[in-house]
Design brief:
By secondary structure, the protein is of the alpha/beta class. About 40% of the residues lie in helices and about 20% in strands. It has one domain: Rossmann fold (3-Layer(aba) Sandwich), CATH 3.40.50.
Length: about 70
């Protein structure tokens, strides 16, 4: 399970997502972002995104997202 932000130094979330999926197609990846869900998720259509968490989120929201992503 990996939680990625969309904005990171050196490599953005989409680039890292694609690289991780290239290395391991079974990895579960959740994107966390302050951007709107639709704007982010559309970049990952049909690529196996496990979930999305809108910042800022609660511990309960994180727990639920991760539980769902692992199903």
């Amino acid at each position: 399970m990996v939680i990625l932000d969309m904005v990171m130094p050196c490599m953005n979330g989409k680039e890292l997502f694609l690289e991780m999926r290239r290395i391991n197609t079974d990895v579960h990846i959740v994107i966390s972002s302050g951007y709107k869900e639709h704007d982010v998720v559309s970049h990952f259509a049909y690529r196996g995104l496990a979930g999305f968490m809108q910042k800022s989120y609660t511990l309960e929201a994180l727990r639920e997202c991760l539980r769902t992503a692992m199903e």
